[in-house]
From TrEMBL:
It comes from Nitzschia inconspicua. PROSITE patterns: GLUTAREDOXIN_1, GLUTAREDOXIN_2. One of its GO terms (biological process) is cellular response to oxidative stress. GO terms for molecular function: glutathione disulfide oxidoreductase activity. The keyword Hydrolase does not apply. The chain crosses the membrane at residues 12-34. Residues 101-163 form the Glutaredoxin domain. It comes from the Eukaryota. Keywords: Membrane, Transmembrane, Transmembrane helix. This is Dithiol-glutaredoxin protein. PANTHER family: GLUTAREDOXIN 2, GLUTAREDOXIN-1-RELATED.
């Protein structure tokens, strides 16, 4: 099980807040699709200062991705305005606990549509919270920055475990899990199939 609150990297983004170019970030924040390019693997590499990696990203790329992602998290937080963080965290935890398959999504995001298609093709039962129409959507996205270290959608949990997005994240994302044949078993195990 993953308790995102304990694994979330905190504070790093605060250090770069003052240096971000808000115009660029506003554009990024308004385009959830861009999130797919801010790869968590690069973020991890940046944090642990590992210079060689299988994906052979240069440290400059890592630094830039880190910069953009951290700035983006800060911007998502600021866009959310004032909200009751404890209440939002309680709601997120409740959703993760109560739903064997949970997806935070945007109604129009292509990667979200693709992720839903993977589940629909398997005729899986799943719960979607559309963050662009949910009244708590902005706050949930802001809290996700601390919960899972990213704000991108789709964000998918299976049996309480964060599996990533459509084709990224800690378990490679839904498409990869499906292609490797693992998804079917995972969904059966939680009774979603
Ligand atoms: C899921 O995997 C199956 C089997 O590998 C494949 O036939 C199917 O096209 C995949 N679904 C999607 C939406 O990619």
């Amino acid at each position: 099980m993953c308790d995102p609150r304990t694994t979330a990297p905190k504070g790093l983004f605060r250090r770069v807040v003052s240096t971000v170019a808000v115009g660029v970030l506003a554009l990024l924040a308004s385009m959830p699709v861009i999130d797919a390019f801010v790869r968590p693997s690069l973020i991890t590499l940046g944090k642990s200062h590992i210079t060689s990696s299988p994906s052979s990203s240069s440290s400059t790329q890592v630094g830039l991705m880190n910069f953009l992602n951290n700035g983006k998290k800060a911007l998502v937080k600021s866009l959310a305005g004032e909200y009751d963080a404890t209440a939002i965290q309680t709601r997120i935890n409740g959703l993760i606990d109560d739903n064997p398959v949970l997806m935070f999504s945007f109604t129009t995001c292509p990667f979200c549509i693709k992720a839903k298609q993977v589940l629909d093709d398997l005729e899986a039962k799943y719960t979607v919270i559309e963050l662009d129409t949910d009244p708590d959507g902005k706050s949930i996205r802001a809290e996700m920055a601390d919960f899972v270290g990213r704000t991108s959608v789709p964000a998918i949990w299976i049996a309480g475990q964060f599996v990533g997005g459509c084709n990224d994240g800690p378990m490679g994302g839904l498409v990869k899990l499906n292609d490797s044949g693992k998804l079917d078993g995972m969904l059966r195990e939680v009774g979603a199939l």
